[in-house]
Amino acid sequence: MDTISDNELMADVQRGDLEKLAVLYGKYNRPLFAFFYKMTSDAQASEDLVQNVFCKILKYRDRFRTDDGAFVVWLFQIARNARIDHYHKNKHLQNASEIDDLAVPGPDDPAGDYEKAEKAGRMRAALDRLTDVQREVLILSRFDDLTYEEIAKIMNCRVGTIKARVFRAMETLRLSFRDQENAP
Amino acid sequence: MSDKKKERLVSELLKGDLPAGEEARVKETLGKKGLDAGRLAEYEHLWEALAKADVPEPSEAMHDGFRAMLDEAKKTSWRSAAEAPATRSPVRGHGWNRMPAWAFGFSLVVIGWFIGYQLTPRPERGEIKALNAQMKDMKTAILLTKLESPSASERLSAVHYAEDAAAWDDPVRDALVRALNRDPNANVRLAALETLARRTDDSRVRDALVQSIASQDSPLLFLALADVMLDLKDARAVEPFKKIIADPALYYAVRQKLEDTVRRLT
């Protein structure tokens, strides 16, 4: 990810060239949506959260400091806080939306789609068994553009803590998959 | 090898952070420390599966919502104080120079309207009035329906739609006040506030804005309402702001802003 370019675009936004935010939106709306969707399994809430993030970027654009690091770190810090706020406001809705949008193949779908859907369902079930923090660290780690150092900044902890969380989350995920395989 | 080192190496291996050529050596070391190749392969398989997890495409409504927000932001109210002189002064500077042409154009419009009004037969004038009324009712109905939509993007675009003078009436005003006080999405509440803040010549809007301070729980709304109250110089906002300031969990920057607002209003 071109950090200098992102930071320059954000500097332009700060100088009043708001159209440059559309460029950043074009680049990051999909990864942000994917982050929220993987965390919530709720497409509508994820769209609202993406919009919420860009609204905050606009509102607080003067607070971004290029010497504090990459734009993407600031972006995901805002995203993380937005999701936590959303979680606290909608605690009662969490369970209701967990199975929303899981792919269920129709009768005409080829067998491959069943297998794919089944795998997706198993992955979702396994992810749901992780703690919120474990799920978050794994999802962030799978964005190729984010390093462990950047994830540590986003989650406000040390790099060593992030690596330990990744390992433990992977182990929980592995055991969860095994449980599903052994289930009758 | 300590557990911490093992955890670090596995995480770096999965992320591809190890130096070139180190991977095989690290796998061998991990194997000797009880982490066999099969288990590592399971981690790697799951790691790949995580990246491939199906995610739907976001809808066009999300993109439309962003565009509506950006267009709104380009209007004056979202500009920071630092930007305002640079972006507004050229307009002000040329305004007086263009005055004669501007006044002439305006005069033509007024004269044209007067002649047209006098020449239009009365029955047609009645039909036009009826059509205008129907159009206004339709705009109001669309707006109210969109404001009730479960999608925040839809509700946001409805609030922006309400800025259209033709759609503005009592039901629209009441719906925007409801959105300001009750909408679950802070962006929609902010947009409603900004639209209402342009209608403060209506005393009912001013009353509603003061009353809404107590309904808010978002720092963004506190800050925006503080700005509006300073513009209005409405001292009725002091008491509700004091109650918010009394909350020990309030963000420091928000507290400072509200304390400053209270000081300037009293």
Describe, in short, the structure shown.
The complex is a heterodimer of chains A (184) and B (266). Chain A is mostly helical. Chain A has helices at residues 3-14, 19-40, 43-59, 71-89, 111-128, 132-141, 148-154, 159-182.
Topology:
The complex is a heterodimer of chains A (184) and B (266).
Chain A: H1 3-14, H2 19-40, H3 43-59, H4 71-89, H5 111-128, H6 132-141, H7 148-154, H8 159-182
Helix pairs in contact in A: 1-2, 2-3, 3-4, 4-7, 5-8, 6-8, 7-8
Chain B: H1 3-15, H2 22-32, H3 37-52, H4 60-74, H5 84-97, H6 99-119, H7 122-147, H8 152-161, H9 170-182, H10 186-197, H11 203-212, H12 219-232, H13 238-245, H14 252-265
Helix pairs in contact in B: 4-8, 7-8, 7-9, 8-10, 9-10, 9-11, 10-12, 12-14, 13-14
What does this entry look like structurally?
- The complex is a heterodimer of chains A (184) and B (266).
- Chain A has 184 residues and is mainly α.
- Chain A folds into two domains: 1-101, Rna Polymerase Sigma Factor, Chain: A; 106-184, Winged helix-like DNA-binding domain superfamily/Winged helix DNA-binding domain (Arc Repressor Mutant, subunit A, Orthogonal Bundle), CATH 1.10.10.
- Chain A is built from eight helices and no strands.
- Chain A is elongated and about 60 Å long.
- Chain B has a domain at 3-50.
- Chain B is mainly α and 266 residues long.
- Chain B has helices spanning 3-15, 22-32, 37-52, 60-74, 84-97, 99-119, 122-147, 152-161, 170-182, 186-197, 203-212, 219-232, 238-245, 252-265.
- Chain B is elongated, with a radius of gyration of 29 Å.
- In chain B, helix 8 (152-161) packs parallel to helix 10 and helix 10 packs parallel to helix 12.
- Chain B has 14 helices and no strands.
- Chain B starts with a helix and ends with a helix.
- The chains are: A mainly alpha (184), B mainly alpha (266).
